Automatic annotation (TrEMBL):
Residues 1-22 are annotated as: Disordered. Residues 690-950 form the Beta galactosidase small chain/ domain. Pfam families: Bgal_small_N, Glyco_hydro_2_C, Glyco_hydro_2_N, LacZ_4. Belongs to the glycosyl hydrolase 2 family. This is Beta-galactosidase. InterPro entries: B-gal_small/dom_5 (IPR004199), Bact_Beta-galactosidase (IPR050347), Beta-gal/glucu_dom_sf (IPR036156), Gal_mutarotase_sf_dom (IPR011013), Galactose-bd-like_sf (IPR008979), GH (IPR017853), GH-type_carb-bd (IPR014718), Glyco_hydro_2 (IPR006101). The keyword Membrane does not apply.
Amino acid sequence: MSFRTHSPVDYVEDVSPGSGALPPRARYASSDAASLSLNGSWRFRLSATADAEDDAFAEPGYDAGDWAEVSVPGHWVLQGHGSPIYTNHLYPFPVDPPRVPTENPTGDHLRVFDLPSDWPSDSGAVLRFDGVESCARVWLNGTDIGEFKGSRLPHEFAVGHLLKPAGNVLAVRVHQWSAGSYLEDQDQWWLPGIFRDVTLLHRPAGGVLDFFVHASYDHTTGEGTLKVDSDVDGRVTVPALDIDVATGESVTVPVEPWTAETPTLYDGVLATEGERVPLRIGFRTVVLEDGLIKVNGRPVLFKGVNRHEWHPEKGRALDLETMREDVLLMKRHNINAVRTSHYPPHPAFLDLCDEYGLWVVDECDLETHGFVEQAWRDNPVDDDRWTPALLDRAARMVERDKNHPSVVIWSLGNEAGTGRGLTAMAEWIHGRDSSRLVHYEGDINCRDTDVYSRMYAGHAEVEQIGRRLDGGTHKRRELPFILCEYGHAMGNGPGGIADYQRLFESYDRLQGGFIWEWIDHGIKHPELGYAYGGDFGEELHDGNFVCDGLLFPDREPSPGLVEYKKVIEPVRIEGDGDGGSVRIRNAHDFADLSALAFEWSFQVDGETVESGSLSVPVLAAGESAEVKLPEPPEVRRGETHWTVRAVLASDTAWGAKGHQVAWGQFPVTGRVPVPAAAGTAPVLADGRITLGPGTFDARTGALTAVGGVDVTGLRLDVWRATTDNDDGAEWQTDLRYGFMWRKLGLHRMRHRLDAVELGDGALTVQTRVAPAAWEVGLATVYRWSSDGERLRLAVSVTPEGDWTVPLPRLGIRFGLSGAADPVTWFGGGPGEAYPDTRSASRLGRWESTVDALQTPYVRPQENGARADVRWAEIGGLRVEGDPEFFFTARRWTTEQLDAARHRTDLTPGDTVWVNLDHGQHGIGSQSCGPGPLPQYFLRAEPAEFSFLFSEVS
Ligand code: GAL
């Protein structure tokens, strides 16, 4: 006998997309019809299960006076009710589709509203939800109007007949888990709530229903063709183009085309009998031709990012200003494309992409990644019962977003395996909109898609694909290639993106890629700074894998973004300095160089001595020119460079005049050799050795001071607090060096003292540096000499035993007591750089503080090294390197950095720890992708390097 028969919440576990909602239609930002935002403070009650409460709260007159309040849009778990959960691909509930747990946090939301006094008296009205996670049931004035799933998709309900002038009661019951959750297994926080706008729209008689703006561009004639199909007949006017045609009629006129680089939009109006809707029309044509994605006749190169919606306090409830900030930051960092991973964004984001110019891959709200754990058994995308839900999702995306010129590719979803449901979606989309391409990375043979797409493929494989030697189905071999995800920006990194870009620019078939991902999803936390997975006591979680963006959670650019900006510059500036000229290549796909001004400057030892403007011809996209530089200034001594910069010539929509877009730097005369510093003999007295400005402990040979600057703990150092990319993802099959280094004990090296030898011209300290338990070691000799004023340390390192792993770093470290600020150096800057993340590091004179040298990765790890440093001054000490070195300084030890889980675990001590590194191992992208390329390995090999110490005068 069973007691659980029909339940009033059966819809929660129903595979259908819902009931009661209107068919999907085009979204438009405004019209002359009235609308009423229902955003704001709502009454809120949380229940532990879906059916804990009946629907009495939906009845007019219900007293919710003792309920809590939440902000709509918002997620209740970020407003003090329950907690967020972070999993990458594991479902945080038993997998038994479409069933969900009995524990199903359910938020009843209540809002009472009056119609404005000027609300039209005719009865048409629609209630629109732009996003609710994951399933909602809606009542207006006590009438059940339907329920829906599809969290990041719009749902509209006809409600005119239910409205009253005052005291309307809108009740929304939101369930955290539903059958829809099986389709929304994206790698992100699970955040229930009404997280996008709720709006009441007046629908006048004869008002606009659905419409489709077809605006193509013929690059051979320079003409655009406009046709607006509309469910309700009307007229379309575009004053700037003298267009005034009926809907359904096409018209061809000369136009400026829309591209991401030149986002020309024409204002128009769609007027039906009852409504006027403003249009922003961009003319452009997307085709697959010659195996390439072409827009307006030309292949495009995507320099993209994957963007999740994120705000450290509001989660996925983004306001317009945050969306605009994202777009401006992208434009200012030379990014030209966004994949809306992994769901359609707030619609206003696409308006901004149209306006500022970004290519968009609009991705459907679909991921079933957790089924991989059961060999994709029961995957909803291969089960016909779910196909209506999949088609509903595809339609809600396409219909909503089809009038955006920025959207050039539709993506079926992410990591959902393969199946008939996906094929059905692709067929439907192709049938509905033949003017765009279809993408889905999981379709490895491109059965249903128009572009071959992969994620995290290594450089060698990408090159094979570029050379069309990758094999695959015949269809796939004819298609262009993109990396829908690469360059995993978790923690320090991603490394190796310049090497990818070189491939993209070498092979036509490679049409670029999208860095994973735009922003760290850290949640602002009172004790932890930014919280990540596990910080809310989740029973399953994936730690800081959720913090893998080019922006920190507060939208400060990370060094990865600065690197990416340099790597994808739309102007290439190259020169050899000597030749007296510079080669400028316009690497845009469409725009000429008229928006840019060029400047040269000349540096001596990193300081600019002269500068001026450089006249560069207005090169068309793809063209290059050799441009003469002025006569270099007369310089008698020092290392000299040219720096040439391309900046915005005047204010644009996204950047101010003078904003730097691209730069190039090239040497003229090389570095002046570092003096040998010899001639003074070491002197032993009172248990101390003195050698020029150096003082040493006679027993250990340890340096204790340089002049008046105390020095502690100077010794060889090979350890770095492993980065997320060093540690690698657990599923990686290649060697994960972070793990191997720790196993080998590189974080617990012992330093055996073998000899302290006083010679005529030097103090020599012989040591062997090795980890307990293993035979491998580094025979390390410190040889000190001096010319009386300066102290020279030559370090020689000889590996012993069978070293099968590279070293994390190789150099020396030491402590300085007290405040060490300011820090100045001549070398790479202003930001951090590692062997495979050094494109943006520019030679110059830089000044900073120890605190400002730190890069605030959400999970602390190795960071902040400055590359190619010739000399640095810190805490009264000057160090010159021979050869150049990586320079790092911090107010905690590497061991403390390594142990910290959050930034708030790091407390500054009295000592500033300085690392001077002869080498660093590359960074790579192994937290999800490939490790560093072999050329960026720091192999355990014999090495010699030296430093010259002196007191700052
Ligand atoms: C991909 C996935 C993304 C994200 C990324 C790793 O496999 O599509 O959503 O999980 O890996 O951060």
